[in-house]
Amino acid sequence: MTSVTKDYAAITDGINHGISGLRQTDALETITAFSAMSKAAMGDGALDKKTKELIALAIGAAKQCDGCIGFHTKALKRLGATDEEVAETLGVVVYMGGGPGLMYAGDAWTAWQALKQG
């Protein structure tokens, strides 16, 4: 049996390409507003940026969003997350999401292992 692993770097690159194209359309205002909302939501506050990114990774995995997994694992690498922090976060995904949570937690762990090296 052949194992197929998702290329999260390629997934996020493809999404970034698509978003760049959307910025050239009438959707620019919406894309700009989403970017501003992201910046406001993810900045340091009562929760620090890394904690918020761990939450975002958990939600991305629970919602089965490959792009979310890719972008948030990249951010967690930049923020100095540890294997233990990511593993515990993904454990909560499994707890809350059962079997489907386990499937995407496994994908998110694979993404973390691949993207933290790059």
Automatic annotation (TrEMBL):
NCBIfam families: ahpD_dom (TIGR00778)
A Pfam family reported for this protein in Swiss-Prot or TrEMBL: CMD
Molecular-function annotations in GO: peroxiredoxin activity
Identification of the protein by name: Carboxymuconolactone decarboxylase-like domain-containing protein
Domain Carboxymuconolactone decarboxylase-like intervals: 32-108
Organism expressing this protein natively: Hyphomonas oceanitis SCH89
InterPro entries: AhpD-like, AhpD_core, CMD-like
